[in-house]
Specification:
By secondary structure, the chain is of the alpha+beta class. Helix content is 15%, strand content 35%. Strands 21, 22, 23, 24, 25, 26, 27, 28, 29, 30, 32 and 41 form a 12-stranded mixed beta sheet that branches. Strands 1, 11, 12, 13, 14, 15, 16, 17, 18, 19 and 20 form an 11-stranded mixed beta sheet that branches.
Length: 1434
Amino acid sequence: MVKTEDVLNMADGWKEVFERSRVVPPPSQTVRLALDNHITQSHGFQLTLSRLTAAHLPQSQEMSGGEQDVTHQMRVTLFDRNHQHFFGKTWRSPPQRMKNNKIPLNEVLYFHTSLRLPSAVVVLELVSLSPRPDGSQQALGRGFTVLELFTNRPEAQAAYGVRRLNLHHGSPRSLLHPLLKDTVDYGSLLKAIDGAHFDCVIKKHPPLDPAMHLLPENVLVSGNENIPGLAASPTGDALLRPQLLKMLPFTLNRLTISLQPSLEKFESQLLQLINADCYNTKEPGPEGTPRTVVIQERRLHVGVHNGWCFLDKPQVVVLEPLASGSRGRSDSTSKKSTLGKDSSSLSTLPQALGLRSSLELRLTNHHALAIVFQLEYVFSAPIGRETMLSATSAPRVAFLQCLRWGIWCPFQEPADWKGEEIQLVLRGGAEPNPHGVMVYSTEMSAKTQSPAPLSAPGSAQKKDTITFRLSSSLERKASSPKASLRTKQEDVLRHRRSPSSPSRGQKSIPPASPPESPQGPGLSLSQLAATSRYPTISHSSSALPWQQSFPSPLHPSLLASAHQLSHVACSGVSNIAHLEMDLQREGDVSQDEGDQLQELPFTPVHAPVITLGTNVPSSCSVSSRSSLAHLHSAGFPDIVDSAGLAVEVLDTTEPVPFDPEREDSDPLQGDLLVFQFLAFTRTPAAGVGPDWPENIYFTFQFYRFPPVTSQQLKLLTGDKVQQKASVPLPCVLASINRDGTVNSGPLGLQVQFRVDGGFLKPGEKRWFLRYLALHTMHIDIWDSDSLLLIGSTAVELKYMLRQGKSAVQALHEVEVLTTDYVGEDALLTSADVGQRPALSLMTVHTIVRGRLHIRTGNIGCPGDPRRRRAADLMASHSNIITPRKVIGGFRGGSLSSRNILQLNARNAAQAHRLGMDGARYLNEPDSGRRKLNCMAAVHQREGKEEAKVTDRTKEARLARQLYPIKPSDRQSKAEGIANMLSQAITTQHLLYANLGSAEYMEFVLKNPFNVPQTVSIHSDDPELSAITNTEEWRYFKALTKTPTPLEENMFHSEEGAPGPRVYLRPKESIHIPLKYQSFLCDHTMALQGPSFQPTGKGSQVAKKNLSNIVAAKTIKVTFKAEDGKPMAICQVNVEPTPHVVDQTFRLYHPELCFLKKAIRLPPWNDPTVGDPDVKTHISVRCSDPNIICQTRMLAPGEPRDVYLKVPGSPSPNIKMFFVMVFTDKWMAAPSQIWQIYVHFLERVDVSCVTGQRNCQSLVLRGKQAVRKVKCFSSHPQEIEVDPEGVFVLPPGAVQELQLKLQPWRAGSRFLYVSAVDVENRRLVTSWLLCLNVHRPVLSKAFEVCVPVGGGRGSSRKITYTNPYTSRRSFLLRSDHPDLLQFKEEKFQISGGESYTIGLRFAPSQSPGSVEILVYVNNLQEKTEETFCVKVNYS
């Protein structure tokens, strides 16, 4: 045992930091004002003290030393000028001597604060230090100044930048004068020192954010301060770019506290003092008034402290009295003995306090890091006048009091505690402690707490101690590799249950290993004031929390001073472990703002993130011989090369070599990629029949082709072949015509994509080959009847690389997977009736829904040599935009000969077409006359009154109608001339852009004048802008390998200017870097359902089709001279190209509510960075501006989550958007593009019991047209929908649907019901059923042994007696029909008679055990009784 007698000896390093870091809190009114303004988040700041210039400092006769011995020091403190209150901690600079009337400081201070209010300022004081004869120093103030941090603007932005402050006469104490209260400008009331000023810089410091938990708020520190938890920096400034020490998990267990002289005497004396205090503060009552103040609960705060503050909120656990000889539980044996003594022998008095669980702490190896313990009691006292009965029946109030505390530094030398038991002496009395509270102390306890060395046995003075063990969680996990994940999950689930209602009667059976105490919600004082039968709350008692009486609102405590009340408020921030589930059932918990909320059990169901070879229960990429023979005999169309020869078949079990040079030298530069969907193998699943699904369709997207939605495909089954096969054979796919008949064409579905020089952009070939080599194609498989998702799969595309061959093909058999969210099994008890169900942990299961057989092929095609030659002859740097050479010159640009010829030809043609005369306006051209004739004919045909008017009047009136158009001719002429002139200086550039990818270009801008010009850059679209950051410019030049010169700080921007400006010398040419990048696109999508194809076509060819996701546009960048006239124009014609989708997600969520989803990213390592510890800069963007998409900065090596917040839509709408993930700082190109579909459904909550039918009503509302509707469910064997067949839904009508649910599995589950328009195969609406299924109450339990093997099984009998007096009919049901069959599933017996139920158990080929529930239901499927049969296969 490691004994720690004196806390001061073991924590010298911590005590040194703690005494130096004590702070003064800010005014409570200022804190409340910040909260009212919603300023709660703390921000980091950097204050640089440059130098102080003081030509004439005021002289003082008080300085005892000579002027040559005087040094100067700068002191910095935070000040609240509204309340005239100094707060925080005064920082003192090292003493400096004045040289040439200047004091060089060169100090950098850091702090973080949430009080970003104009009243918070920084006070800087200059102090002279002179030596005294006794060796001490005399400090004398020589002036001070005030630095304002925040302005009066409502957004409370800091006044950043370089500041020069005047030094004022006097001391900062003058700020406390009443005349300066509520003064905004101190300069008008304070006298400045002539020639004395102070230079400093204040700015935000975001790198301090990850280290803010190591420092308290409002504390000014320098970079060389000792801050435990922060790694030392070689530059000496550890806060400039803070690096945190690695935190390791540790487990604290077997914790006990011994109070002297004994627990009973200690608490008895404590209650006597409290009740005596109560008696002295109340009106005198009659003799013999009973003591009414009782101990409600014993709590222990455990936290990690670094001398400055707690690294995290201290955990709060409830201690329980232990009998003599009992210790904190460390294994099942110790718990068993403890429970036995607590429950069986009430005469054994408790001798110590113990913790029955373990605590998880995160520590780092630093000698000044300490674990702080604080023992706290919760007392309960009555409110109002008390009587003999008021001690238990009157409303009571709770108050808290700290009794003992202690600290222990585990990493201070010598650290020999590993594996040993640590005993620590607890302290009491009025002395500083990390919690900042008053600690209980008596005269006797104060004597026992005096520090003294350990004496010999017999003479040692007993002290209050805490004993525990601390071990590394990593070592504990490594020492027990055989620990089952299921066992750990069961321990967590068992611990999360309410202690008052354990499941399955396991009230006294402990788990195999102690569960770790999670951080639960903090208890409010009103909840702690519940009346107790004994001074402690028994967490294993049968009293439920809603059966206890809760008191009226909180009244001031009898022992609480103002300082203690602040401690009470802070304790609410901490966490309680043992009452977590009780408080969740209460549902009336008042959470503090700092508590960590736990996620609700409802988790949106989505298709799995598929990666081949991972998360596959039984991956099999090679088909069996029987499956191959069955597919070969089906007669699918063969894949042949361009010469009509058979294609080589690749083995999908062997690696694929990839040589880019061989692909480049391939004479067949075109590729025809073929996907043949051949067959689908059904997998038996719970809740569906053996012939499910009957019809399917696919959705997928290949490369940057448009998304493909296939037509309906029928699963053809050969009954004779299936009966002979021992395993399910593939069901051949056949396309279905619009009339529902099977297509007589070739079997299967064939989709082709042609990729050649006409489709690919120049240089895109290598990106396409890289896509085939590294990517998988995501495929969603749908039930075409119910339009519900069956599952998802992915096919590797690397087997489509030809590598110089004329054609290749490969056969794939991939598993179709889906995810299912299942909650914990719950036992239905009488206490649960009418109460909100307890929250249970959701478990994600991967379910195999079937196997898809796909054949992929790539047929080489000869490319177009003209296109290839044109691509080869393209300029190596096509991103450099050079204006064409022009002839002549004039201000504003010049006209090229080509433009002049075009304009002359156009004008000549117009002059020839128009008859010119000497009138003021042009005569009507032929087109105008035709317009008049057409308008007259229309009016005459419609028979309007204008037809009666003469032709001359009619023409005059029609001419007047056209008259307003004629003045525009002059305007159009002016615009035409302006356009003609602008075209002469316009350079057009064609740009192929992808979603999220940045396209870099450089425009060569030349100054045509003989005088210098300052050119401003204007862009009419924010997606095209000039790159003004030099580092970003350098990055894109290196990325595109552009060998043009780069100039530092070439641009300058002015506030309010439309764009950046650049200076050009006469006749100078420079390169202007431009970047186009778009994150927005169109999200319109087709309705959910299969597509229809013309009869007789069994294949689908996907041709080149430009994506309509990103719209084409024309963007002009104008370069204007100083006079505002354009000098040059760069017109960029953006031609959108489809983008590659790397991953597809389908999320299901209730309608009209926000979807909040986190998608975890894998740890990303940048190969260009040599240091593996340097974290990759990851950023995300969303294509929909109405969706919040962000990621958070975490420690290096830790996984990162992408957080989505999607606004809801009505059912059955589907919202589609893209998420782009960037791994480079300047977001040049997305590393991943995700396509996310969010299906919104109507949510219905259902609570039921297994084996029993439950009815639920749904309402279906008609739309605008008459529809033929049929309803489907995801689990037809568990959900029946009435009406079952097709029914007509009139417009605006309301149709009631009756659901009959009979689930067979307990726990929380999600099922789906859809209403489909059977004529158009479109989804009308869909429902998400959130089932909370309970286990039934068991009547009897049986056990039977069945031999393994042999194929005979076993038969047994159970006797059932009709409890009714009349004759009844009953039904027999089982939750495992594959393992248990009944002799008769329906029987009828008279009242009071018995019936023998015959059971037939199926044989098993492997040993094990399973519990089978037998339900005896009535004709309405209501459960009469439930039997549990445990079958042991041995």
